[in-house]
Specification:
The complex is a heterotrimer of chains A (93), B (166) and C (116). Chain A has three helices and no strands. With 93 residues, chain A is an all-alpha fold. Chain A is elongated, with a radius of gyration of 16 Å. In chain A, 43% of the residues are buried. The model of chain A has no long low-confidence stretch (mean pLDDT 87). In chain B, strands 1-3-2 form a three-stranded antiparallel beta sheet. In chain B, helix 2 crosses helix 3 and helix 5 crosses helix 6. Chain C is an all-alpha fold and 116 residues long. Chain C has one domain. Helices cover 72% and strands 0% of the residues of chain C. In chain C, helix 1 runs antiparallel to helix 3. Classes of the chains: A mainly alpha (93), B mainly alpha (166), C mainly alpha (116). Chains A and C meet through helix 1, helix 2 and helix 3 of A and helix 1, helix 3 and helix 4 of C.
Chain lengths: 93, 166, 116
Amino acid sequence: MIVKLLMGTIFLTQILLVTAMAFAAFRVLRGPRAQDRVLGMDTLYVTATMLLLTFGIRTGSILYFEAALIIALLGFVSTAALAKFLMRGEVIE
Amino acid sequence: MRPAMSRWLPYPMMTATLLGVWLLLNESVAPGTIILGGVLSLATAATLNTLGLPGGRLRRPRAAVSLLLLVLVDIVRSNIAVAKIILRPGKGERVSGFLRIPLDLRAPYGLATLACILTATPGTVWVAYDRSRNTILLHILDLVDEQEWIDLIKGRYETRLMELFE
Amino acid sequence: MTHLAEIPAWAAVLTAVLLLTGAVLTLIGTVGLLRFDSFYQRVHAPTLGSTLGIGCILLASMLFFSVLESRAIIHELLITALMVVTTPITLMLLARAALYRDRTEGSDEVPPPPSD
């Protein structure tokens, strides 16, 4: 009973998160401007981190945590670099 | 005592944080991990010292904890408020806009903390800071009453941050 | 999924509630990302997911693994700290970049820089 409840909730959580990722991906594809696309990418990274954490709970494996940490780190660095690029036209001045 | 201390331990809080991160990543408090982590965080802090960051000291840690709790409560409350705005049907009545607020706070770490608080709270985003006039430009999602927002930010966060950092 | 059976009922229910709250908040945030009209309104929307949304899911993960392994597993605090520090920075950088671009294009949607 409890296993079924937990399994069902994790599944539902994953569906909700994937829907959220689809919405963010829509914003990346549609724009209309470059800053909207970068904002969508940043949302994608954060949601991907959450999805990996739910995978970790589902499988009981700690390994997913490290992947989530790396995605969160890379997401921050790439969004910061893209925002810098939008502002100045180059990443490193 | 003081020069030697600041030479070998230029940023005590940052060194402690780095050591904490190292221990969390390794998930162990074995002596070897602590020694390696301690050496690494001391070396990192010494390297950062060459950048010449502005020094700052957090006074009154208890006030900092109460500010943290206040911000957590505010984040939960404004999450609910922004979720309501998003789910409200129709397009018409959303009034959002830019707001310029004059500040009295000047300490660099205080300003950085204020920026993080305001941006992490859904519904307000810090857009720009004007150093010569000491004003900030915010974008606010639900800008119904400008004066109310100014009073909220100055009264709720700025006074507390000035107590902490100045 | 044998490991799920080892979780006591209270922890399972709490984990489930936290997971669902986080996911629903994140979804509402991305709905806002779709619905809002201007970029500056859209900047506010993903904050829901990156503050309370990911916070709930990290809490769920900490609780679940701590109960599962019957010792405190708190390395999720690293992601929490990372999110606390990075979310405001990325949003501020993006908002500033958008403001800069709009000002150079002479858009009347944004306020002009303060002039003496």
